[in-house]
Amino acid sequence: MKIMQKVIIIFCLVVPFFMGCSNPKMENVLSKDISFELLEYFDGKTFAWGLVVDRFGNFQRSFKVKLIGKRDNKKLLLKEYFTYNDGEKEYREWVITKTENGLYEGTSKDTIGVAKGKKVGNTMRMVYDTTISIGDTDIRVSFDDRFVKADKKVVINRAEIFKWGIKIADVTIFFSK
User: Fold this and answer.
1) Global pTM?
2) Contact 61, 84 (CB under 8 A)
3) Domain 2-176 has CATH 1.10.260.40
């Protein structure tokens, strides 16, 4: 009997931990009234504000982004101009292609391989590997980007950054047209 009690106690302690480690489900934020068309939304000028928080919840830095997108049929050339709170500036250029059935592919200079995205209603998820600079060191990380179109003008993005499968940071960005 004591062994069974220990098993039940361990089960009750361990299962909630693993449930807390699961990724949020995109279906939880779906809207039937709003559709997110990535190429249309980022065509033209967009502005964004964001912040980076480490895996312990400590604020690391904030930033502003000016985005300029140029759409050509099923492709988008997206130029991102970042300005961080410490004065650092960064430029990234993406080429994003709408393939089929709500699927997208993206490439940039820093992306390792091809970013893969899937759109469902007013949400989109994009996963990719890239390199980021921390001090003088470039490290390879994986991004899990989730976008939610809140209304006609606002898109909210939450990106989780992983190294060796361990989450090292969260990035939250608010886009506005």
Assistant:
1) 0.81
2) yes
3) no
